[in-house]
Write a structure and sequence with these properties.
- 75% of the residues lie in helices and 0% in strands.
- Helix 4 packs across helix 6, helix 4 runs parallel beside helix 7 and helix 5 packs antiparallel against helix 7.
- The longest helix is centred in the middle third of the chain and has 26 residues.
- The radius of gyration is 18 Å and the shape is elongated.
Length: 183
């Protein structure tokens, strides 16, 4: 989806829909609800986005780009932070159930069969994130591998699943420290 340019009104619809998808799921939020809650005519929605499939792709692309900006900011622009602190920031950014990653994580489970192009956006983000994690891990320990970076991502996603399936009493700091202290 090169050069995605949206009007300010379209961005408002995307932002409202990201919120709806995040809290209610991709399949339970239909076009009728989106246009009602965004206060736009259905024809305007289709003029902007053409289909729900294309719209979901746009929403995930916007979310992915916002998240990438935060990850790059942590990895590149926080020069005063130690590698462990950067990894901690990445971990907490991605395990926040109200944060940016949760929608991409949710997409992996909800849209693979129905919106395959949008699904690929989430998958490609995960691959990109593994590379970013690896670039940090290799600074922490010179013999770190891509498998270690994958394990870090699986730890993030396992924490999300624990947070969703429990009463939210997961000690995220303790989980992270177990991984970092083993490195």
């Amino acid at each position: 989806m090169p050069n995605l340019v949206l009007s300010s009104r379209a961005i408002q619809v995307v932002n409202k829909s990201i919120y709806l998808f995040h809290h209610h799921g991709f399949h339970t939020v239909g076009i009728d609800r989106i246009v009602k809650e965004s206060n736009i005519p259905k024809a305007t929605f289709y003029n902007y986005f053409h289909s729900k499939e294309r719209f979901v792709e746009i929403c995930l692309t916007v979310q992915k780009e916002r998240l990438k900006e935060k990850v790059v900011s942590i990895a590149e622009y926080h020069q005063g932070l130690s590698v462990k602190d950067k990894l901690k920031k990445l971990y907490f950014l991605h395990t926040d159930l109200e944060g940016l990653y949760y929608l991409l994580f949710k997409a992996i489970f909800e849209i693979k069969l129905t919106y395959s192009k949008a699904y690929q956006i989430a998958v490609r983000y995960r691959t990109w994130l593994i590379n970013e994690i690896y670039s940090q891990l290799i600074k922490l320990k010179t013999d770190a591998t891509f498998q270690d970076a994958k394990l870090f991502l699986y730890m993030i996603e396992g924490t999300i699943i624990q947070l969703l399936s429990s009463d939210g009493a997961v000690d995220r700091e303790k989980v992270l420290n177990c991984f970092l202290n083993a490195k």
